[in-house]
């Protein structure tokens, strides 16, 4: 069968593609920020918390890393509702994505924390810094700087994985694609266009995180060397 | 002369390894004490105990009015009074020399940013590195890093400074730079305890030499004691150490 | 009204086998293609290298969901209409894993010091002999932990094959839920089965990594 | 675009590929033994028997019914496939073999009398279905929540993620089975659609054959029996024309 | 004496860095040429060019009848004739000493396994390591590893051996072991080019000394030339190198 490609019928839908891409970016940005905070806190808890916290965090990380995001999304979405709390699909999507990326962030940041030498803590301790001050000034900042490339990759993957949330009615890029293709019956063309938009988005996310890194890691910007 | 540091009968073991076996000595205000002895004799451990980096098993340690042996010791207030400099510098790699120095005053003493910067300029000048304020540790030589580390401690205006083999990672020329700074400090009246392998320096600067051997204070006296050792152990140590 | 029963558990069990089968296809297919791409990626021939970089970038920059759709409908458009979902899912997952495995293995191949490549060359070994006798045995040791780690990703990501109608574990969960509407129970059980497959793998991967770190000290 | 005659191909292949949405009770679903069942499934079996070939079910969802048909993954679609003008531009339909309404339903106590009352409310529907089209075009100012298939919509309604639905009475019945304490009630009928078998354009022989079968089994009452059995209401005496 | 190696006017740059700037010299059959010169003078690069590990920008190199400068050069057949040993040994860490040696004969010359093993035993005995056949590289000292590396090259029975500072990663005692093996080879009539810092060894073993400076062959002559340098550069190099 010879298939007639026809991208022209998709042209009318560009505002919707744009809207979907925008929501994808928003979902990813919010999940990245919250997931980073959650993951970092968990990493600290796992490195320096009481045994029960360590156990809790370790279990959380293992469970999340060893089950598919798709299933996590369903459990969050329907689980929350079963508890009688109504949240919008976007909120459920963000919760699921944050829980998911938090676990990965935790593992990555933990590696960073472990790379900070014990003598650094002693030095800070001897200067009279309090524990939170030591964490903030001496441990977390260099730790994050060291693992920043790994975090960047993880957050690009998160952006791509957010396509799964279309299944619980979040109107992000993939959901928009599904709707457009059932309107136009141009599924192949639609998915090609969406694939290209995702490629562009991952480029945007990478650039964004790179710029953010430049702004935050002054030493790296000035010297260009890895810690 | 009032004692700034006073160790009485301090015991400390790591597992079954008795590292400090009844150590006692005193250091008065403005004194410079040089602790010498073979590797493994417990010098670093003694220094770390003074700064409460290790807890002790027996005896008492008084440092600037703090009862270090006490379980209820307020470590942070002890550490405002005591500065320590390590062999491995331990500068914070992600901060410039100036930021390294400003950190503790602004975090601990809540000094304003501008004041902290002035303070940093001041102590950097004292160690002869005024123009390196904006450099990151990796951009500095070993001797310069060590001097920044000293400046970082000085910025907290401690009553007592501890130095643990601060020159042994340096080549002879860089060693000279650092020893000069320490000499200046001694001349300025700072109370100091230094663990060192530099006999010549100990002889020249120290008002008291403490010779440790197998976890005990074996001999103690003025710098001149190195020239006329009373025990065969010190004699052989001085002989070999030159 | 039916509720969650042994029948459903059995149904999930069979679906889990499909998940494993799909993972095996993805791993073997992805491994073969990925290795070829990794070789292209370090080839001295420039256009091969660029082709490999382009391939890796595109695969890693497209969600698997979209990749699966494209392949499913793309194969049909190419004229093969009676494509079983298994084939489409297999091809999609193969492409996906090859993109990632290629990048992992490229790193491992390049971590074998350049001097080893030169020494082999100087002994007049052919490029193939150099690869199989000298480089691969060294690279494989380094590559094992991240490869096993990625296997976990593959197992989890087979869940997306459900979007092209393939009945693996996640899709089976959806079907059961369609008939009994107990989403929480059903997806918890599904999650537990995934965990039972993936957890041993990730533990193994981490143990290998530790062993490697110790031996390299 | 199919070049060959699909009817011949079915005969030659000895197998009928029917696209059915198993996530849309009571038309397509699975029973307690996880076997496919529902009115579309039984109708398809009837058709296959009539053609004298075994049936193979191709599972689809609302959004991908048409691509499955167009890309040749299925011979025909029997998935409560409502007839509408957009679809007719791309595919052909047989005569109707059932009807389906698009209704808005909500639980007791909600004040919905007209479309205007829906402003600002969350309405659940199935992405890419006729329901989605009607709801989206008729109801403005409402938040429309779209799921990939009826089953997920039902799960969402049962678990309380949404309370108002824009879908068929059949979906409502399935929901009410699972929430007997707080059942949904029909508020507004948006449209009544005939549904028919979808097939690729230009398959006149196949269409003629399908229409013969529909006429025959409507007359024999078998199709009416199946509709009644699963929908609980009888099929109207005359079905609207589709072409 | 026919030339085994002949470089004429060889040029080679890395980017803008001219590393070989018109290098010419010849080495005849059975000769031992020692290449000396300061760090960065291009010695290693010259050696690597002879073995076609680097391509050259101008000039010609003939090695055992192979036109190395030719684009159509058959590298594999060149390398059957030329053995090279590096400063960093480059043994294959996943193979035992014996397996390291057997690899090339069995892969390249298609020698049977048993023959290859006999060959390995043979060359291991020649470098005095018969009893280390089953050891992995990490179980051997630096000097032993270097001798296995030499044995590995010898097993291919090359017509020419290249050595690039094969002793500079070794301490004096281990150096002695390796130099002895090389002396034996020289005495056995092997054609050899060695880049070395061991002036005494060059003087003793080399039939020709090539002094390189700034990418040029500055002086060349017999070992005795080191005792009466004609250029001030060699004079200062010999003076400092001792
Ligand atoms: N954290 C520790 N755990 C166990 N043993 C320790 C620890 N710190 C030091 N030791 C042991 O205590 C003994 C004394 O160590 P210490 O570092 O005080 O010696 P030192 O006199 O400073 O020697 P050096 O000149 O080598 O620095 C040594 O035997 C050492 O192995
Ligand atoms: N692969 C390369 N890329 C760029 N420059 C190189 C490369 N290899 C060598 N060089 C440069 O070529 C010059 C000569 O290097 P070469 O290694 O030949 O010197 P050498 O005489 O062997 O010195 P040494 O005694 O230190 O080994 C040096 O300036 C070096 O930096
Ligand atoms: Mg010490
Ligand atoms: Mg060299």
Automatic annotation (TrEMBL), chain A:
Family note: Belongs to the binding-protein-dependent transport system permease family. HisMQ subfamily.
Membrane-crossing residue ranges in chain numbering: 20-45, 66-85, 190-218
Source organism per UniProt: Ancylobacter oerskovii
InterPro entries (UniProt xref): AA_ABC_transptr_permease_3TM, ArtM/GltK/GlnP/TcyL/YhdX-like, MetI-like, MetI-like_sf
CDD domains in UniProt: TM_PBP2
Places the protein is found: Cell inner membrane; Cell membrane
Keywords carried by this UniProt record: Cell membrane, Membrane, Transmembrane, Transmembrane helix, Transport
ABC transmembrane type-1 domain mapped to chain residues: 21-209
Keyword Protein transport among UniProt keywords: no
Membrane topology qualifier: Multi-pass membrane protein
Protein name: Amino acid ABC transporter permease
Record bears the keyword Transmembrane: yes
UniProtKB/TrEMBL annotation, chains B, E:
Predominant localisation class: membrane
Localization of this protein: Cell membrane
Transport keyword on record: yes
Residue ranges of every copy of the ABC transporter domain listed in the record: 5-238
CDD domains in the cross-refs: ABC_HisP_GlnQ
GO molecular function, one term: ATP binding
Keywords: Amino-acid transport, ATP-binding, Cell membrane, Membrane, Nucleotide-binding, Transport
Membrane association type: Peripheral membrane protein
Top-level taxon: Bacteria
PROSITE patterns in UniProt: ABC_TRANSPORTER_1, ABC_TRANSPORTER_2
Family: Belongs to the ABC transporter superfamily.
PANTHER family tied to this protein: AMINO ACID IMPORT ATP-BINDING PROTEIN, GLUTAMATE_ASPARTATE IMPORT ATP-BINDING PROTEIN GLTL
Protein name: Amino acid ABC transporter ATP-binding protein
Automatic annotation (TrEMBL), chain C:
Keyword field: Cell membrane, Membrane, Transmembrane, Transmembrane helix, Transport
InterPro entries cross-referenced by the UniProt entry: AA_ABC_transptr_permease_3TM (IPR010065), ArtM/GltK/GlnP/TcyL/YhdX-like (IPR043429), MetI-like (IPR000515), MetI-like_sf (IPR035906)
Annotated membrane topology: Multi-pass membrane protein
ABC transmembrane type-1 domain location: 16-205
Localization of this protein: Cell inner membrane; Cell membrane
Pfam families, per the entry: BPD_transp_1
Transmembrane parts of this sequence: 12-40, 52-80, 86-105, 184-204
Chief localization: membrane
Entry-linked NCBIfam families: HEQRo_perm_3TM (TIGR01726)
Family indicated by similarity: Belongs to the binding-protein-dependent transport system permease family. HisMQ subfamily.
Protein name (record): Amino acid ABC transporter permease
The species this protein was found in: Ancylobacter oerskovii
Lineage, uppermost ranks: Bacteria, Pseudomonadati, Pseudomonadota, Alphaproteobacteria, Hyphomicrobiales
